[in-house]
Each structure stands twice: as C-alpha cells, then as structure tokens.
Amino acid sequence: MARTGAAWRDLPERLGKWNVVYQRYAYWCDKGHFERLFQGVQQPDMEEVMVDSTCCKAHQSSAGARKTSGPQAIGITRGGLNTKIHALCDALGNPLRFLLTPGQRHDSKAVPELLDGFKAKALLADKAYDSDKIIQSAQEQGMQVRDAVTWEAFGVFDAIGAGLTREATLRARFAPAACEPVLSNGGVVDFGTLSKKDLNADKDTRLPPRSLTLMVGCDAPASFALIMHDNRSGSATLNSEIDYGLGKDSRGNRIGRYSLSVAPSDANADGFARLYRTDSSTAGTAWSTGSANPIPIGQTRYLAFTDNAGSNAGPVLIQNLSTRVTVDAVIAPTNSLDLSTAIELDGAGTIEIIYL
Fold this sequence. Notes:
The protein is mainly beta. The protein contains 4 helices and 20 strands. The two termini are 47 Å apart.
C-alpha cells in the first residue's frame, strides 16, 4: 500500500479488513520489525560501499498536521515540499541502509550516519560528497575513496539471411567526482557496419582498433590510479586480467571480448615533459619501474603515471591528464554463435579512479 500510494480503504477484501491490516503494519513500523527483517536478510559484499541520494516531492497533504512523533523529514526547497532519500549500498548494489532528511539537507550531511557500523575496503561517491571531512573519516576507517566511471559496449551484427546490419558502438559514462573524467566524441566508438561476411566462421575476428581521448581533470594535483571492472563477468571468450565480455547470445554462447589500452607516448599532463606508465599488483604497496610501453587497463592491477622512466616510487601528482585509450574488440567464431537471430553486443564495465 505504501509503495503504490493507494488509500488503505482500497485494500482488496480478500486480504482482510483494511483497518486491521493498517494497525498491524503501523505496529510493525513502530516496533522496528521491518528494520530488523531488512538487516536480517543482508549478506553484503563489503569490498566497497556506495552512497547517493535522491529527492522525492512530498504530497500537498503531507504537511500541516500535528507532529506527534517528531520531525517528518519534509523540507521546503525551490521546488516545494521535498524529502531526500539517502542510501548506502554494498559492492553489488544491494541496499544496506536508508535515511530520510528534509529535501534541502546537503547530501554529505547523511554520510556519518549511513556509514556508522559498516566496514568496507573502499567508499564510492560522486562530487556531492567531496569534502575533506568525509574523506578523512573514510580513511580513518581504513577505506579508500573512489570515483566511478562506467563503460557500456553494445551493438548488433547480422543474422543469417536476415539482412540486418547496424552500427556497433562502445560508449562510456562518467560520474562526476573530485577528479572528473571526460571522453572525446561523446564517448562513442564506431566500429562501422558488421555483417556475417565480415566475420570468420572458425576463428576469432579482431575488429580494427578504435581510439578515444580520455581526459581527467582534478580540483588539485592528486595521486590516482585506474582499474576496470567487468559488468558482464563470465561472458568474455578469454579469461584474463585485461579482457572484458561482450555479453552472450540467445543460447548463452559468449559473443567475444574487448580490452582498453593506454600508450604513455600519447599521454600528457600539466607541465611534465614526458609521462611513463607505472603499475602495481599490490594495491599501491609497490610499483613497477616507469615504462614507455603500452599497457591494458586491468581488473585488479593499478595503472598510473610517473615522469621518471627509471623510478619505481609510484605515480606523480597530476591535476590534468590527457591520454589516448585504444579499444580492441574481438568477435568469437560465428560457428560458435547462434545466428538465427540478430546478436546484440552487450558489454559493460566500470573504470574506477582510485585515490592513493
């Protein structure tokens, strides 16, 4: 009833007398039974936690009555009466805690109460939570503070005899943060038109590489690294640190894979004469010697930049970075795919900026 906004008197008769149901619902709310049920079924993945909020407009009848149970989390904003819903989620997006505040309350004010009692390796949040107090509080609890960057790959190629051709594209979306990343060309890579005759029947088909320019702008010089997560885990045709899936066809066959590589020779930042890549397989504890060789963005291996080719001291502080990202996509042999209907490429991943 609360979810649909229906009046209690509209409760179907087969569910019982509306007043009895309402009284039981109100009793459970007052006693915290729903809260305990919510907590009891949680099996959170605490690799990282995420915070965010949204506003919902309060009904015109929500204000004016006597407040017999304290504040009602309704505030006055430029849009009228609003309530803000704050949420904390685990690494899989499962909700862990909700908090209601008046609509004019700033997002960051709810963070201490949301995080209270939870321990995680990292905190993901957008620019609304970019405050020294939140970052310091998270770091005191042993968390890294990260910004999320999301890639999406999708498209369609021909079914046998169907005569359908569409463009295959790779897109990326970025969440604003203290270091804000931006992609050239609106984040779209056009692989052209793919049809059955363009693909190999008995071996992989490697599509021509395409590139974008990735720019990262920070509020101040910062030490950061890049990693990437596969949101289509288990769909890549090659199980490796640097390959990400393109989804599966209607029969569950893996469509292909793609990777994203960075060439230090194409990277520049601030006033540095030259940049080199440095990477870490120990979450930033130890770093490789600076190198000019290209490197793919890995799932667990940190990728960062230094200005010294012979140094293993780790990344330098960078405020504005620009580098070319090369996208290499591979389609599985067509004899391993169900081509009775058009196949949609459904790759998706998340690139993270990790503050060091």
